[in-house]
Amino acid sequence: AEGIGETVRAGQIFDFFAGECLRLAGEVLPSARPNIGVEITREPVGVVGIITPWNFPIAIPAWKIAPALGVEITREPVGVVGIITPWNFPIAIPAWKIAPALCYGNTVVFKPAELVPGSSWAIVDILNRAGLPKGVLNLVMGKGSVVGQAMLDSPDIHAITFTGSTGTGKRVALASVEHNRKYQLEMGGKNPFVVLDDADLAVAVEAAVNSAFFSTGQRCTASSRLIVTEGIHDRFVAAMGERMKGLVIDDALKAGTQIGPVVDESQLNQDTDYIAIGRQEGAKLAFGGELLKRDTPGFYLQPALFTEATNAMRISREEIFGPVASVIRVKDYDEALTVANDTPFGLSSGIATTSLKHATHFKRNAEAGMVMVNLPTAGVDFHVPFGGRKGSSHGSREQGRYAAEFYTTVKTAYTLA
């Protein structure tokens, strides 16, 4: 079901940017008809009478009589765009990078993650069959250390947009600085979800379960830190346990499945390693964390919920990228906000509360690129900007009209009338 939803979103992204081609900001716009340009200009009103005072006898007449200059502010493509995408959203993330790259007139070299060649081939095949000219969209597959490195080393790539790990993101940045190219990074997250005493418990639990465990926790916007004030803490933990008991963990293609398997054995090992680390650090494994068997082969892991965690523990500091979440008890809203912001990351942040005062303050003071109130920390509409702060992101935002900032370069041109 999530894959179908993602594919629908990919279509929406292309639909949005198809229209965006006709809404380019600036004084020169493309026509709906091919090979025709449109200029939106201001023309003279006719004869102008100019009456000036004595106090600035040169400057004031000058700024009224000065020769007319025509100014064009245009956006132009940056050239060849390298696109490197992860495995967790193998259609949507390529879509929100490829669509604006093409919309704004660039050519693309697209390297997907090794785990998802089928999805990548499908999206490129669809676009080619839709009529893209040959050479505009180029799919390259292989190891990041080989194919990805070749892209980073190439002086013929003028911009690189990357979504993936923090370590690889730093390599992309260093290589891009060497070639003086534009680069855009979407990396890790350790997103907080705050639950206040006044929260609607059912809303808080549903948002927390979705944030932490849906997509098997394999989302950069997943919330693995559940920061809960002490007045609601025990009721929240009990309700979370009951809700988690009902989660359907099975083959992702099977009707009714809510959580599919972990992507591969390597990621499963990382998840179970962090569960062991959490126990060693003194957190209590309140629910889950067990390996499961299903009729269809796969790496099935029961979502894990830790309690009695602190924000100093590794399970609270490092991105796990799996269905593992920690509950951190705090005294009040002020402490909750402090703990929420105490992270090297800043992608998404959420809060469950019925207080307009706290919701408003949190939206203004959460150190994240995206803030959700009584909603899961994951899930952003296709026409609004996506991105974070601190160690989560670098460069301009993705998606919506903000995508133009990365995929174009601005030119200002003057013409003497």
Explain the overall architecture.
- The protein has helices spanning 2-20, 59-65, 92-103, 117-129, 144-153, 166-178, 201-213, 230-245, 265-281, 314-317, 333-341, 356-365, 404-407, and strands spanning 28-30, 37-39, 69-77, 80-84, 107-111, 137-139, 159-163, 182-186, 191-195, 223-229, 284-287, 291-292, 300-301, 304-309, 324-330, 345-346, 348-352, 370-373, 389-390, 393-394, 408-416.
- It is an alpha/beta fold and 417 residues long.
- The chain has a seven-stranded mixed sheet, with helices on both faces. A six-stranded mixed sheet has the order 6-5-4-7-8-20, sandwiched between helices.
- Helix 1 (2-20) runs parallel beside helix 3 (92-103) and helix 7 packs across helix 8 (230-245).
- The N and C termini lie far apart (59 Å).
- The model has no long low-confidence stretch (mean pLDDT 90).
Low-confidence stretches: none
By CATH, the superfamily of the largest domain comes out as Aldehyde Dehydrogenase, Chain A, domain 2
Question: How many beta-strand elements?
Answer: 21
Largest sheet: 7 strands, mixed
State mean pLDDT (0 to 100 scale).
Answer: 90
Structural class: alpha/beta
